[in-house]
Design goal:
Blueprint lengths: L1 H4 L6 H9 L15 H39 L8 H42 L5 H4 L1 H22 L10 H11 L3 H59 L4 H4 L1
Length: 248
């Protein structure tokens, strides 16, 4: 895909459409009534599933993008792509881009949910270490950094995210670029780059959540050990043999 990397729209369509998506409210159906330690485990399960989806879509996008490049190389001077090729290559690529935008949006929502879970854990586990105290801030940094990474990628190509204010306008841009061989190559390159950013960011989100789970488990073990030690000390005091000298 070396030729595609030089394209001016390498991240414009796919990346901007990701940034333009409104963040959905976190689906609380799976965590309603759960304690916050349980919620972070459930969050981890959802992120793990999302990471697998992102990897699958990234593979699909790379495959379709390579097909587009091969076809364009064969017909360099042709503007129109035959309908059969649209059905075989282009339409599946656009469908994969739409899946990617949904995955990215879900990941952002899970990041915001993590901020809330982390804040509640910090209150509930008062006296815990920095891993729990800073968990909410770590999630917040992930949300901000992920969006910044997309924006920086766009600006590196001389484009700004605000030029694609909504998902609808981004999809219109995709349709417009589909009219030329160069535009199709640019969209394909953009999709590959955006997919790589999304996959990497979800892997980072998974690492943050796993670290939070480990911190909760460690804190619970510590408190349980302290409780057992206290109970043992009390029991030893109650059942200790009396000092006969004090009874004389």
């Amino acid at each position: 895909m070396n030729k595609l990397k030089k394209s001016k729209l390498v991240l414009a369509v796919a990346g901007a459409s990701l940034l333009a998506l409104p963040l959905p409210s976190f689906a609380v159906s799976e965590v309603a009534g759960s304690t916050f330690p349980e919620q972070i485990v459930q969050e981890g399960t959802q992120i793990e599933s999302l990471a697998k989806q992102a990897e699958e879509v990234t593979t699909q996008i790379s495959m379709y993008a390579n097909d587009v490049e091969r076809y364009e190389n064969m017909v360099t001077n042709t503007l129109d792509m035959p309908q059969a090729m649209f059905a075989k290559v282009w339409n599946p690529l656009v469908g994969s881009i739409q899946k990617l935008t949904a995955i990215y949006s879900q990941a952002q929502a899970l990041g915001y949910a993590g901020q809330n879970i982390g804040a509640q854990l910090a209150q509930e586990y008062e006296g815990a270490g920095s891993s729990i105290k800073n968990l909410s801030a770590t999630y917040a940094n992930w949300n901000a950094t992920t969006n910044t990474d997309m924006q920086d990628a766009l600006e590196s190509q001389g484009l700004a995210a605000q030029n694609f204010a909504t998902q609808d306008s981004a999809m219109q841009a995709i349709n417009a670029e589909a009219a030329t061989a160069k535009g199709r190559a640019q969209v394909a390159g953009a999709a590959v780059a955006a997919a790589n950013v999304t996959t990497k960011s979800i892997q980072q989100l998974e690492q943050i959540t796993m670290a939070g789970q480990d911190a909760v488990i460690a804190y619970d073990k510590q408190k349980k050990a302290e409780k057992n030690a206290t109970a043992k000390a009390v029991a030893n005091g109650l059942f200790a043999a009396p000092n006969m000298n004090n009874l004389l």
